[in-house]
Amino acid sequence: MKRQKMDWVDEEKKRRDSGHKRPLLQTEHWAMNTRYPGETLEYCCDCNQPTGRAGKAEDSLYTEDDDGPYCWDCWERLGHNA
Ligand SMILES: [Zn+2]
Predict the structure, then answer these.
(1) Ligand 1 centre from 8 Cα, in Å?
(2) pLDDT tens for each residue of 11-66
(3) What pLDDT score was predicted for residue 12?
(4) How many angstroms is it from 62 CA to the middle of ligand 1?
């Protein structure tokens, strides 16, 4: 099997696997998820369920104290309003 040179998607995946996540652009999410399905799903910091949101730079739910991201259920349960 021919080994392919690593490109930025592989590099990013490697970084994420080692715990260094960064906000991604929508196009980057798309590229990541195309190669690694579900890779860039965002998980709630409280219940660990997918938030269904796209990242801090997008529509993710963060408190004013920068806690998050939260899923909608936890967000509401904690008394936040959108
Ligand atoms: Zn939650």
Answers:
(1) 31
(2) 999 998 898 888 777 778 778 878 887 787 778 889 988 887 766 666 788 888 88
(3) 92
(4) 12
How remote is the CA of residue 24 from the centroid of ligand 1, in Å? 21
DSSP structural state of residue 36: S
Amino acid at residue number 19 = G
Q: Which residue has the tokens 């801090």?
A: 56
| Nearest CA among 10, 45, 39, 8 for reference residue 56 | 45
> Are the C-beta atoms of 51 and 72 separated by less than 8 Å?
yes
CA of 2 to the centre of ligand 1 (A): 42
For the chain, how are helix, strand and coil distributed in percent, rounded to 5?
Answer: 30, 5, 65
In the reported structure, the alpha carbon of residue 9 is separated from the centroid of ligand 1 by a whole-number distance in angstroms of 28
Query: Between residues 80 and 1, which one has the greater pLDDT?
Result: 80
